[in-house]
Write a structure and sequence with these properties.
Layout: H1 2-9, H2 16-54, H3 63-92, H4 99-126, H5 132-144, H6 149-167, H7 182-228, H8 238-250, E1 259-267, H9 269-295, E2 300-305, E3 308-314, H10 318-330, E4 339-345, H11 354-366, E5 376-378, H12 381-402, E6 406-415, E7 421-432, E8 436-438, H13 444-449, H14 453-473, E9 481-485, H15 487-492, H16 495-505, E10 513-518, H17 527-539, E11 542-548, H18 554-560, E12 565-568, H19 571-574, H20 582-595, E13 599-603, H21 608-617, E14 621-623, H22 633-642
Parallel strand pairs: 4-5, 7-9, 9-10, 10-11, 11-12, 12-13, 13-14
Antiparallel strand pairs: 1-3, 1-4, 2-3, 6-7, 6-14, 7-8
Helix pairs in contact: 2-3, 2-4, 2-7, 3-4, 4-5, 4-6, 5-7, 6-7, 9-10, 14-16
The protein binds ligand C2E and calcium ion (CA) (2 copies).
Length: about 650
Amino acid sequence: MKDNIIRWLGIDKKSPYVRDYFYAVNMRASIYMSLIVVVLEIWMIIRMTKTILELPPDVVKPFAYYFQKYYLNYLILLAAGSCMLIFAVRFVKGRKDNPVIGNVIKWIFSFVCIYFGEIISYNDYAKGEQILTFLTMELFVVCLLIWRPLISFLILSSSYLIFYFRIDMIPPPNSTEIGTTLATQINMFTMYLSTLLFSFANYTRTLSQARKDENLEQLNEHLSRISVEDELTGIHNMVYFRSEAEKMMNYVTTDKENIVFLFFDIENFKSYNEKYGFHEGNILLKKIAHLIEEAFEGSLVSRFSDDHFVVLTRFHDCQKKIQQLSHEIKCCQGEVHLELKCGAYKPDETEKDPSLACDRARFACNSIKKHYDCYYQLYDKSLEDRFHLKQYIVNHIDTAIANGYIKVFYQPVVSTENSQVCGLEALARWQDPNYGLLPPGAFIEILEEYRQIYKLDQCIIEQVCRDYQKAKEKQLPFVPVSLNFSRLDFELCDIVGFVSQMSEKYHVPHEFLDIEITESALTEQQNLLTNAVRKLRETGFKVWLDDFGSGYSSLNVLKDYQFDVLKIDMKFLSGFPDNAKTQPILTSIVNLTKQLAMVSLTEGVETQEQFEFLRSIGCSRAQGYLFSKPVPLEILREKIRSGELQILPEYLNI
Ligand code: C2E
Ligand code: CA
Ligand code: CA
């Protein structure tokens, strides 16, 4: 009830928007009102002057008389009207004058209008004329301007009452008796009520319009905010980033040499979500977003997607900030190991496309994924070339196999006893029509990453078996071939079944196929691999341990698995003969293989001196460029025919 009365009287608290709305409406209305007053008063001054000038000299009173009686009033009204007019016009033109001054001027102006309305109409009434000036001024003040109902009520009531009591003290026109007539009283009361109601209606209409506008404005603001704001983190989204970045790239004044796009990725964020739940994950994302925003204050910062952020900033001090940020994010990681990765791209001056710049920064960022402790990478063209090659390899492995682009190169393994070839290692090559001859370093890792490696290994197995069959048919010599298997082959296909199947199909005796498994594949104790190694050996294939000594778990591997041949990694020979430790280490490894009933083979033999040493310590076999690089089978045959290589007599007739 109380609230209703307060609302009805219009003295409830208004929002700043509504207050501003009322103020603006009043300022606009003041322009018309004050303009009329100014024009009217100028006209009154002219008219009065003309009347005085036309009076016969004997009737003219001193100027002071006219000034006090007329001119002063006109001038005061003119001054108030002019002040109001100037202030209101300044407001409409967008000048931000203090609204308190505006309100004070409005009050003074209204008061002056009503006051002179009363004085003029009082004089008119006394002369037996209408009281129209008073009524007009009342209408002007309370109906053109918008007041709260209580104020309208006070203004109108007080001014009507004062006017009424004043004219009630003099006789009405054509009468000698003091006091207003009933007709005047009724007329005045009716006029009072009408103006009061009209001003109330005006107030209500303006208020509802202001509220409607306010709602629209709020909706608009909300819409424009969500269109540029990331819902989760509250920082800018990519719509905003792209449009602002594009502007910056196009401004002539931007120091384009010094701008850089940064792409951030929080590595292992998925594990954080898994461990602490999505809610906590979201809280952390928000925190990270604000850390990035703080670190790059004044720069353009947005959330790209998921746990990815982009920043457009100055290049010269960005690395220091990234390092600091990386440290701060580590402090939030809890029990999960989080790592900040950042890719950077410096666009050249002609570039105008922020999306492409973000892509490249992202690209640089992806290139250091899983590179422990490497948190920053600047984009360069070779990075992209590598990326394209990667895509190419993943997308073309099937066609490469179908079109016969995958070739087997063979590298001989010789016996240290007599330097005769006792084996061949099958090494894959990709003879590509676009990229030329690709070494395994260019595709093995990628195929493993995309879990496609088994396709290549199956292809090599089949080619080797086919080569054996052809040699047999043509009664050419052939030696056992060792095949490289990836750890993933055991997971992705039944590789043991496949190699058995191929050896059946091409009638290859099992002792002609050896399987090399690299040491690093065996570092995790896996039942799958243990069983596979056992099964291979049971089926008659020899299993070799490749790259022995390249990892950290060499001796454990020897304890857990049984191998036929131990292939000593070529890094042991790289320091030979300068590194004094190399020789005793190699000697111990070779002795170990003897104790474990394994055949020892050292790869990477490049010099006669190395070979002599290996022979002297009892290493059974050697492989390396000293004998031959990996080459196609025909070239190998050529080498055998020319006598450059000799093969063990037992393999001359298979
Ligand atoms: P790996 O099995 O250790 O093969 C030996 C690598 O050392 C070969 O490189 C060979 O060319 C190179 N090499 C041989 N002798 C010497 C030497 O005296 N000095 C030097 N500096 N290097 C020598 P390649 O052919 O580039 O193969 C690299 C790696 O690719 C192989 O290492 C193997 O892990 C993998 N790979 C090759 N072919 C296949 C395949 O068919 N399947 C799988 N899964 N992996 C393969
Ligand atoms: Ca190998
Ligand atoms: Ca090796």
